[in-house]
Predict the structure.
Amino acid sequence: MTVPLAIDARSLARHYGEGNRRVDALKNATFEIARGEVVAILGPSGSGKTTLLTVLGLINPPDAGSLRIDGHEVLREGARVTNLALFRRRYLGFVFQRSNLIPFLNALENVQLSLELDDVPPREARGRAREILTSLGLAERLDYVPAILSGGEQQRVAIARALVNAPAVVLADEPTAALDSERGRQIMEIFRRAARERGAAILFVTHDHRTLDLVDRVIEMEDGALTVRAGGST
Amino acid sequence: MNLALRDVRHDLARYLLTALGLGLLLTVVLAMMGIYNGLILDGTALPDALGADLWIVQRNTRGPFAELSQISHRLEERVRAVAGVRLARSYSAQTIQRERPGGGKLRFAAVGLPWPDDHGERLPIVSGRELRDPHFEAIADRSLALALGERVRLARDVYTIVGLTEGMLASGGDPIVFFTLSDARQIQYDVANEAVRLEREARLARVRASELGLNPENLRRAHGLSSGVPALGPLPVAAIMVDLAPGADVDTVRAAIGAWPDVTVHTTQGERDLLLRGSLDLMLRQNGLFRVLLVVISTILMGLIIYTMTLEKLHSLALLKLLGARTTVILAMILEESLLLGAIAYGIALVAARFAFPYFPRRIILGDADRVALLGIVVLISVVASAVGIRKALAADPNQVLAS
């Protein structure tokens, strides 16, 4: 049995503005990412990295192209899955530059919520959240609200939240930008491990060249166009 | 996981402080409801307590509560002769404001009970006793803060408080003090010695100026006591109360007395209606409008509070959307916070009402129906207020999360 691709994007395009102000943020983006692969999207500011992430994350629809996630056709020539919320819960995980945890929930609850939103019973959700946070070295921080966690700890909680649902794809927007190099590297190693152990495809936008040795592939972007080159060691 | 409770827990002090403010506003709404009830109960307490079947007042007036009425107390004897009448009692009332023993204002409505027919048996006496002597005893409402056995100088005499009632207030809110009718009139029509002397001299001069002055006996009488001058009528009373004999038909008796050309007859229910449509009507309507205004203000304030609370959470709401939260999860969170805020504020209002209202100068009477009505209002304004926040929450854009 063939394992479906985590991401199968064909000719994705998106623009902002019209006429003289038209900006083609994403041009004819075609690429594939397999499960367990870690891919970095590299490029200068304004090259379309975040636009690509919002299209793949089903936040903004593309103007053209098609997209399959984990074998499911979610976008095709303007049409897209009707229940976006359900699809995001089941197949996608998000990690952001700033951890973007919910400030009124503690670390455990932030992760638990992700499961409960997908109708996992609270007791089971709590157990699974505790387990993944412990695996990321946060067993002593379960009751801490984001405001009293360090930047690295917050980011680990965010990764736990993204991974706990066992999504096919984790989309990360500069997840190491707010961290020092050592902590940034720790985060990348966590991604690497998650890809290997959980089979998730990790696609992350970064400016940070120091961590590229931990990725399988690098997708470079410039003016909305993609070029692919091989990554560092696996 | 209940997100609303966790959000509240996160900033509990501020949430409770907001609920306290809203609760105090709801206390005012509750006070207005209680004042409304108090106005009705105070206004109708006296006619209810006196327990007459019919009230005979000056012709074409709505007296004695809604309007001034003056009739001769001798009407009592005519009324007693009507078939079906068991008892006719004079009614007289006057607002009195004097100095309290030891200083301070002593303001009350003096009501006369016709001795010996009425000793105050019908009054809601909670302490002490009814009147036993035809003079110099009084039954006061407890709100006047006179003690049993306390002696109060009124006009030329000293009266002893022998009984205390509960809830006997005039429509203006003044406590009522019951005397025998003759004592009440004595207090009501007390005139200074010099005024009596001047009136006698004036009377003497008027008699001298007429043919009557040729008779020395007329001159002697004119210069004497008012009661010794047959041409001077007795002082009027405000109304005659009629108690019907067992089995008598109220409409028949009313029709018989109402046919007299010098009086008008009202039933006790009629008196209540006259009060509610007359002197109390404006106050009740004013109170009602205040209540409406306060409910509107509460709704606007609560809407603003929920809106502000939603604005502060907008980023979290956008994040929830990005994480795939159903719309109902977000709606429930806003609605639950709004309802919880309303519920806490409602609780605060009930507690504040319980402890604060007894210290208000006028009676504030709350029944279960009022509490339930306020609960209904709170639920309604919570839902309306949450709609403002929900509208904002639904507009939260997941792109915001990536932009931050």
Remarks:
- Residues 60 and 173 of chain A are 15 Å apart (CA to CA).
- The longest strand of chain A covers residues 23-33.
